[in-house]
Amino acid sequence: METLCSALVFPSFRITTSAFSKCGIRASIAVEQQTSQTKVALLKIGTRGSPLALAQAYETRDKLMASHPELAEEGAIQIVIIKTTGDKILSQPLADIGGKGLFTKEIDEALINGDSDIAVHSMKDVPTYLPDKTILPCNLPREDVRDAFISLSAASLADLPSGSVVGTASLRRKSQILHRYPSLNVEENFRGNVQTRLRKLSEGIVQATLLALAGLKRLNMTENVSSILSIDDMLPAVAQGAIGIACRSNDDKMAEYLASLNHEETRLAVSCERAFLEKLEGSCHTPIAGYASRNEDGNCLFRGLVASPDGTRVLETSRIGSYAFEDMIKMGKDAGEELLSRAGPGFFSR
């Protein structure tokens, strides 16, 4: 894992990680591991080891400590880092190595086996099904769902010269970029954590990249953003910007802890989007986007999209209904069924 205490400086471009200026996550983990040898933790948080995943785990830890005095004691909470399949295999596009559960499977297994008590996930990585013996009762307040455009030479996608290469590991981003800017090229195996991708950009491997604004905010790295794409220009991934926290289904104490952190508006929006995704999931090779939000009237506005990977065919739909769980689940499923029908046979099996 790259050090989080330093800043990488490039000409006319500065990549910083000031969110971890307290002396670094490595040091924090070492302290926690030492503490755990002398005191049994009351709660173990399972997480990936990337800087962003750790930021999300620490956000969860801090909220738990603030809400429950017994968890604020030194050593009461331990961070358990788990390497996932998605972290181990970086040489292939995500769609080629399985798609579903690549960043969650091993974390869920550690939860089920008792090696951790709760699991912190980026909700966009969580399959629409949950493993047996687990529940996901908590979503933290959602961050900004939009995508950020980052480039050393251009202020936006529209400013990139024809033939420029945009790096992304997302078929959703690739299809929407090519749909609007067919003269651009997309490098779709642009893998790695945020810091790695920004380093590749600085080295000229690509001319631009898109990253979730939520992650950059959580890493305190928004100074790297050239511009922010509107929802109209780039519909986000299902559950983008949302953190989900799972526990074992028979662990009432952990469920009680998580209930105190749950942000219901986020949970409902994510549930609507995941209902849409569940209807459509037939292939991890299909670009899918979906976003549910509360409009100015207090109702739920849902927008969904499916596309061909090359961006030549993009299908969109929308729904408006009450901001209530059953109605929002119905909207998501109904929108998914519509796009399935419009796409026709074979669209989701390419």
Automatic annotation (TrEMBL):
Cross-referenced InterPro entries: HemC, Porphobilin_deaminase_cofac_BS, Porphobilin_deaminase_N, Porphobilinogen_deaminase_C, Porphobilinogen_deaminase_C_sf
An example Gene Ontology biological process: chlorophyll biosynthetic process
Domain Porphobilinogen deaminase C-terminal: 268-340
Listed pathway(s): Porphyrin-containing compound metabolism; protoporphyrin-IX biosynthesis; coproporphyrinogen-III from 5-aminolevulinate: step 2/4; Porphyrin-containing compound metabolism; chlorophyll biosynthesis
Chief localization: plastid
Top-level taxon in the UniProt lineage: Eukaryota
GO terms for cellular component: chloroplast
Keyword annotations of the record: Chlorophyll biosynthesis, Chloroplast, Plastid, Porphyrin biosynthesis, Transferase
The EC number(s) this enzyme carries: 2.5.1.61
Protein localization: Plastid, Chloroplast
Family: Belongs to the HMBS family.
Record protein name field: Porphobilinogen deaminase, chloroplastic
Source organism (scientific name): Glycine max
